[in-house]
TrEMBL record:
Organism whose genome encodes this protein: Undibacterium macrobrachii
Record-given protein name: Alkyl hydroperoxide reductase AhpD
Gene3D superfamilies for the chain: AhpD-like
Domain of life: Bacteria
Gene: mip
Pfam families (alphabetical): CMD (PF02627)
Matching SUPFAM superfamilies: AhpD-like (SSF69118)
Stored InterPro entries: AhpD-like (IPR029032), AhpD_core (IPR004675), CMD-like (IPR003779)
NCBIfam families: ahpD_dom (TIGR00778)
Length: 178
């Protein structure tokens, strides 16, 4: 059971319901972690804004999911791991790729560099080496791409913390942490 109140359609204010309606129209469902976020409509709007901007960037959807899987495993967030396993499969990631992502890598050489950089950013709280930046650039990532990788790390750390702090009920097929 969640340790932070889950806002439902029955308990939502007009503002919260409007946000739920917008989410429902885009995703077809309002995931439980967004129902936790909805306790603060300002926080939910901020997250949705960041999420929307981050998903319009240069990183492809598969790489974004790879980073999310790596962050969920690294930060021990079972909710996010379950969600991004489902979303990753829907986006086209294989089971073997998901396993590699959870281990901080990828079967795709370029994506492996992005996932490795994301893992290092989280592990070292941003204190990455110049060699890691050069490796990313040599793999074809621009400084804009690198900033987007950093953005996705930050966004995933936020959702991982929310998932763990709230102990939100998993509403995706459950995946256990390694």
């Amino acid at each position: 059971m969640s340790r932070i109140h889950l806002v439902t359609n029955e308990t939502a204010t007009q503002e919260q319901q409007a946000l739920f309606d917008a989410i429902q129209s885009q995703l077809g469902v309002v995931p439980n972690f967004l129902k936790i976020f909805a306790n603060s409509p300002v926080a939910l709007k901020s997250f949705l804004g960041l999420y929307g901007v981050a998903n319009e960037g240069s990183l492809d959807p598969l790489t974004r999911e790879r980073i999310a899987l790596a962050m969920a495993q690294q930060n021990s967030c079972e909710y996010c791991l379950s969600a991004h396993t489902a979303l990753g499969k829907k986006a086209g990631l294989s089971n073997d790729e998901i396993t590699a992502n959870r281990a901080g890598s990828s079967q795709d050489a370029k994506a492996a560099i992005a996932v490795k950089l994301a893992h290092s950013l989280a592990e070292h709280k941003g204190e990455i080496t110049t060699a890691e930046l050069i490796e990313a650039r040599n793999a074809g990532f621009t400084d804009g791409d690198i900033v987007e990788i950093i953005t996705h790390v930050g966004m995933n750390i936020l959702t991982n913390i929310l998932g763990k702090a709230s102990r939100v009920e998993i509403d995706f097929p459950k995946v256990n942490l390694a």
